[in-house]
From TrEMBL:
Residues 1-95, 96-192 form the Lumazine-binding domain. Catalyzes the dismutation of two molecules of 6,7-dimethyl-8-ribityllumazine, resulting in the formation of riboflavin and 5-amino-6-(D-ribitylamino)uracil. The lineage of its organism: Bacteria, Candidatus Falkowiibacteriota. GO terms for molecular function: riboflavin synthase activity. NCBIfam families: PRK09289.1, ribE. Pfam families: Lum_binding (PF00677). InterPro entries: ATP_synth_asu-like_sf, Lumazine-bd, Lumazine-bd_dom, Riboflavin_synthase-like_b-brl. Pathway: Cofactor biosynthesis; riboflavin biosynthesis; riboflavin from 2-hydroxy-3-oxobutyl phosphate and 5-amino-6-(D-ribitylamino)uracil: step 2/2. Gene3D superfamilies: 2.40.30.20. Its EC number is 2.5.1.9. It comes from the Bacteria. It catalyses: 2 6,7-dimethyl-8-(1-D-ribityl)lumazine + H(+) = 5-amino-6-(D-ribitylamino)uracil + riboflavin. Lumazine-binding repeats lie at residues 1-95, 96-192. This is Riboflavin synthase.
Length: 194
Protein backbone atom coordinates (compact mmCIF):
# COMPACT_ATOMS: atom_id res chain seq x y z
CA UNK A 1 0.00 0.00 0.00
CA UNK A 2 1.10 3.55 -0.76
CA UNK A 3 0.00 7.12 -0.04
CA UNK A 4 0.61 8.91 -3.33
CA UNK A 5 3.26 11.14 -1.75
CA UNK A 6 6.21 10.87 -4.13
CA UNK A 7 9.54 10.43 -2.36
CA UNK A 8 11.94 10.61 -5.31
CA UNK A 9 12.00 10.98 -9.06
CA UNK A 10 14.41 8.97 -11.17
CA UNK A 11 15.13 8.06 -14.79
CA UNK A 12 14.74 5.04 -17.02
CA UNK A 13 18.16 3.55 -17.76
CA UNK A 14 17.18 0.65 -20.03
CA UNK A 15 14.09 -1.10 -21.43
CA UNK A 16 14.07 -4.71 -22.63
CA UNK A 17 11.30 -6.94 -23.96
CA UNK A 18 11.34 -10.62 -23.07
CA UNK A 19 8.64 -13.29 -23.54
CA UNK A 20 5.78 -10.77 -23.58
CA UNK A 21 7.08 -8.90 -20.54
CA UNK A 22 8.87 -5.56 -20.36
CA UNK A 23 11.91 -5.32 -18.07
CA UNK A 24 12.75 -1.77 -17.02
CA UNK A 25 16.03 -0.75 -15.38
CA UNK A 26 15.82 2.49 -13.38
CA UNK A 27 18.53 4.63 -11.76
CA UNK A 28 18.43 4.00 -7.98
CA UNK A 29 18.13 7.10 -5.77
CA UNK A 30 21.45 7.52 -3.93
CA UNK A 31 20.21 7.29 -0.33
CA UNK A 32 17.73 4.47 -0.96
CA UNK A 33 18.42 0.99 0.37
CA UNK A 34 16.52 -1.49 -1.76
CA UNK A 35 16.44 -5.27 -2.01
CA UNK A 36 15.11 -7.81 -4.49
CA UNK A 37 11.49 -8.73 -3.80
CA UNK A 38 10.63 -5.34 -2.28
CA UNK A 39 7.58 -3.49 -3.62
CA UNK A 40 7.71 0.17 -4.62
CA UNK A 41 5.37 2.33 -6.70
CA UNK A 42 6.81 3.46 -10.02
CA UNK A 43 4.60 6.08 -11.70
CA UNK A 44 1.84 4.66 -9.51
CA UNK A 45 2.38 1.01 -10.48
CA UNK A 46 3.02 -1.38 -7.59
CA UNK A 47 6.27 -2.97 -8.78
CA UNK A 48 8.33 -5.82 -7.34
CA UNK A 49 12.08 -5.26 -7.58
CA UNK A 50 13.62 -8.07 -9.58
CA UNK A 51 17.28 -7.15 -9.22
CA UNK A 52 19.12 -4.42 -7.36
CA UNK A 53 22.61 -3.16 -8.17
CA UNK A 54 24.71 -0.37 -6.64
CA UNK A 55 23.28 2.34 -8.91
CA UNK A 56 20.11 0.85 -10.39
CA UNK A 57 17.31 -1.69 -10.06
CA UNK A 58 15.07 -3.59 -12.46
CA UNK A 59 11.39 -4.49 -12.51
CA UNK A 60 9.40 -6.70 -14.86
CA UNK A 61 5.90 -5.88 -16.10
CA UNK A 62 3.57 -8.58 -17.42
CA UNK A 63 0.98 -8.19 -20.21
CA UNK A 64 -1.89 -7.29 -17.81
CA UNK A 65 0.06 -4.28 -16.51
CA UNK A 66 1.13 -3.33 -20.03
CA UNK A 67 -2.56 -3.25 -21.04
CA UNK A 68 -3.65 -0.96 -18.20
CA UNK A 69 -0.65 1.31 -17.63
CA UNK A 70 1.68 3.55 -19.64
CA UNK A 71 4.77 1.29 -19.36
CA UNK A 72 4.85 0.50 -23.09
CA UNK A 73 5.26 4.24 -23.79
CA UNK A 74 8.27 4.67 -21.50
CA UNK A 75 11.61 5.44 -23.12
CA UNK A 76 15.20 5.60 -21.98
CA UNK A 77 15.74 8.87 -20.10
CA UNK A 78 12.10 9.32 -19.06
CA UNK A 79 11.50 10.68 -15.55
CA UNK A 80 9.44 8.46 -13.21
CA UNK A 81 7.85 9.01 -9.80
CA UNK A 82 8.99 6.67 -7.01
CA UNK A 83 7.42 5.86 -3.65
CA UNK A 84 8.40 3.14 -1.18
CA UNK A 85 5.57 1.10 0.29
CA UNK A 86 3.83 2.34 3.43
CA UNK A 87 5.11 1.01 6.76
CA UNK A 88 2.93 0.71 9.87
CA UNK A 89 4.67 3.61 11.62
CA UNK A 90 4.31 5.97 8.61
CA UNK A 91 1.70 8.71 8.41
CA UNK A 92 -0.99 8.61 5.74
CA UNK A 93 -0.27 12.02 4.19
CA UNK A 94 -2.01 11.43 0.85
CA UNK A 95 -4.75 8.84 0.52
CA UNK A 96 -4.92 5.04 0.32
CA UNK A 97 -3.22 4.02 -2.94
CA UNK A 98 -3.01 0.34 -3.91
CA UNK A 99 -0.64 0.76 -6.84
CA UNK A 100 -3.09 -1.11 -9.09
CA UNK A 101 -3.61 1.07 -12.14
CA UNK A 102 -7.22 1.17 -13.30
CA UNK A 103 -6.68 2.83 -16.66
CA UNK A 104 -4.73 5.54 -18.42
CA UNK A 105 -5.89 9.09 -18.96
CA UNK A 106 -5.01 11.64 -21.61
CA UNK A 107 -3.86 15.10 -20.56
CA UNK A 108 -6.10 17.36 -22.65
CA UNK A 109 -5.45 20.78 -21.16
CA UNK A 110 -2.84 22.54 -19.04
CA UNK A 111 -3.72 25.96 -17.62
CA UNK A 112 -1.12 28.08 -15.91
CA UNK A 113 -1.59 31.37 -14.12
CA UNK A 114 0.53 33.37 -11.69
CA UNK A 115 0.57 30.82 -8.84
CA UNK A 116 -1.72 28.21 -10.32
CA UNK A 117 -1.28 25.11 -12.46
CA UNK A 118 -4.30 23.07 -13.51
CA UNK A 119 -4.45 19.86 -15.54
CA UNK A 120 -7.54 18.45 -17.28
CA UNK A 121 -7.54 14.71 -17.99
CA UNK A 122 -9.96 12.45 -19.87
CA UNK A 123 -10.57 8.82 -18.89
CA UNK A 124 -12.76 6.06 -20.34
CA UNK A 125 -16.41 6.64 -19.34
CA UNK A 126 -16.62 3.50 -17.23
CA UNK A 127 -14.06 4.98 -14.80
CA UNK A 128 -15.51 8.50 -14.66
CA UNK A 129 -18.25 7.43 -12.21
CA UNK A 130 -15.57 6.79 -9.55
CA UNK A 131 -14.30 10.39 -9.74
CA UNK A 132 -15.95 13.10 -7.63
CA UNK A 133 -15.22 16.79 -6.98
CA UNK A 134 -13.04 17.12 -3.87
CA UNK A 135 -12.39 13.37 -4.03
CA UNK A 136 -9.00 11.69 -4.35
CA UNK A 137 -7.36 10.54 -7.58
CA UNK A 138 -3.87 9.21 -8.32
CA UNK A 139 -2.05 10.36 -11.47
CA UNK A 140 1.31 8.72 -12.20
CA UNK A 141 1.38 7.77 -8.51
CA UNK A 142 0.70 11.29 -7.20
CA UNK A 143 -2.19 11.72 -4.74
CA UNK A 144 -4.31 14.66 -5.90
CA UNK A 145 -7.65 16.25 -5.10
CA UNK A 146 -10.17 16.48 -7.93
CA UNK A 147 -11.30 20.06 -8.64
CA UNK A 148 -14.21 19.30 -10.96
CA UNK A 149 -15.69 16.57 -13.15
CA UNK A 150 -17.66 16.77 -16.41
CA UNK A 151 -18.68 13.51 -18.12
CA UNK A 152 -15.38 11.66 -18.64
CA UNK A 153 -13.08 14.62 -17.93
CA UNK A 154 -11.77 15.91 -14.62
CA UNK A 155 -9.29 18.51 -13.49
CA UNK A 156 -6.75 18.77 -10.69
CA UNK A 157 -4.77 21.75 -9.40
CA UNK A 158 -1.09 21.33 -8.59
CA UNK A 159 0.92 23.32 -6.09
CA UNK A 160 4.52 24.41 -6.88
CA UNK A 161 5.95 21.73 -4.54
CA UNK A 162 4.22 18.95 -6.52
CA UNK A 163 5.44 20.41 -9.82
CA UNK A 164 9.04 20.51 -8.54
CA UNK A 165 9.14 17.10 -6.81
CA UNK A 166 7.22 14.88 -9.26
CA UNK A 167 7.23 14.32 -13.00
CA UNK A 168 3.82 16.03 -13.42
CA UNK A 169 5.50 19.38 -14.07
CA UNK A 170 7.12 17.81 -17.15
CA UNK A 171 3.84 16.62 -18.66
CA UNK A 172 2.38 18.27 -21.74
CA UNK A 173 -0.88 18.16 -23.65
CA UNK A 174 -1.72 14.70 -25.09
CA UNK A 175 0.60 12.86 -22.66
CA UNK A 176 -0.75 9.62 -21.19
CA UNK A 177 -0.99 9.30 -17.39
CA UNK A 178 -1.52 6.27 -15.16
CA UNK A 179 -4.82 6.62 -13.28
CA UNK A 180 -5.89 4.90 -10.08
CA UNK A 181 -9.34 5.95 -8.93
CA UNK A 182 -10.26 6.06 -5.25
CA UNK A 183 -10.38 2.48 -3.96
CA UNK A 184 -13.23 3.31 -1.57
CA UNK A 185 -15.38 4.50 -4.49
CA UNK A 186 -14.76 1.18 -6.27
CA UNK A 187 -15.83 -0.85 -3.24
CA UNK A 188 -18.95 1.25 -2.66
CA UNK A 189 -19.90 0.86 -6.33
CA UNK A 190 -19.47 -2.90 -6.14
CA UNK A 191 -21.55 -3.17 -2.95
CA UNK A 192 -24.37 -1.08 -4.43
CA UNK A 193 -24.56 -3.37 -7.47
CA UNK A 194 -25.38 -6.40 -5.30
Amino acid sequence: MFTGIIQKISTVKKIERFAGNVIVTIVKPKAWRLHSGESIAIDGICSTLQRVWAGSFSVSYMPETLKRASVSLWQRGDTLNLEKSLRLQDGLDGHIVAGHIDTTGRLVKVQTAKNSYRMSVTVPKRFARFIAPKGSITLDGVSLTVVDVTKNQFSVALIPYTLQHTNLGLKKREDILNVEVDIIAKYVDRLLKK
